[in-house]
Amino acid sequence: MNHPLRISIIAATYNASAQLERMLRSVETQQYPHWEIIVQDGGSTDGTLDILRRHDKSVSWVSEPDRGIYDAWNKAVPRANGDWALFLGADDFLMDDRALAQCVHFLKRLDAGIVFAYGVLAMGLDGKLTGILDRSRHKVFSMFISDMGLPFPATFIRTDFLKKHSFDSVYKIAGDFAFCADHIRLDNVARLPVCVSFFELSGVSSSESSRKRLLRERLRILRNNVEPRLEDITAALIATADSDELEHGFIE
């Protein structure tokens, strides 16, 4: 008998008490019941652990020092039991209580070779919407030339793939971009016509103080990860050009 798809929500936290509750509640109130929350905390001292203790029934958490977000994710992945994983920041949240149900509706139809399945990402400040990131597959591959490609907080990744391929913890901000640049292919990525989550623009990767470091990390990834794959990426751009305008819209 086929088991229901299980979703692992993975979060790295550090002194995240201001908005962590919102993220946890956005998962706990989902209409789709087959999920788990995996939190890897870096040793918070601000009340984050008190919040996690209050959510002990729904959250599997560990608190110990780490070397940043991607090291924390690498530590969390082995504890994940889901079929697909979604990485959220402590200040991000699922868009509404139907988000996982809508995503699973499409995830369960995907071929086994699909590793990445991404949806639409809402963005804003203090939970207030300021923009929507709705990229076709063509746009995803074209953005690899100069930007982040996949909208990571709205991207599901097969958990068994994650357990074989770790994030490069040398990066502090753009390790998700490096991961996708290494592994995305035309035949292993699918688009979900669902607004999955809300990305809080006040996070680490969006702050002005981190902008220079982010640009340096992106440049390194473009040279080391993207440039050797330009032929494959160009082929993907050509193959998806005709469907560019068709890959938009939301499910009802």
Give structural notes.
This protein has 252 residues and is an alpha/beta fold. It has a single domain (7-241), classed as Spore Coat Polysaccharide Biosynthesis Protein SpsA, Chain A. The protein is 32% helix and 23% strand. The protein has helices at residues 20-28, 48-54, 69-76, 99-107, 137-143, 159-162, 175-183, 211-226, 230-240, and strands at 7-13, 35-41, 59-63, 84-87, 93-94, 116-125, 128-133, 155-158, 189-200. Strands 1, 2, 3, 4, 5, 6, 7, 8 and 9 form a nine-stranded mixed beta sheet that branches. A hairpin with a 2-residue loop joins strand 6 (116-125) and strand 7 (128-133). The longest helix is centred in the C-terminal third of the chain and has 16 residues, at 211-226. The chain is globular, with a radius of gyration of 17 Å. The mean pLDDT is 92.
Give a topology summary.
Elements: E1 7-13, H1 20-28, E2 35-41, H2 48-54, E3 59-63, H3 69-76, E4 84-87, E5 93-94, H4 99-107, E6 116-125, E7 128-133, H5 137-143, E8 155-158, H6 159-162, H7 175-183, E9 189-200, H8 211-226, H9 230-240
Parallel strand pairs: 1-2, 1-4, 2-3, 6-9
Antiparallel strand pairs: 4-8, 5-9, 6-7, 6-8
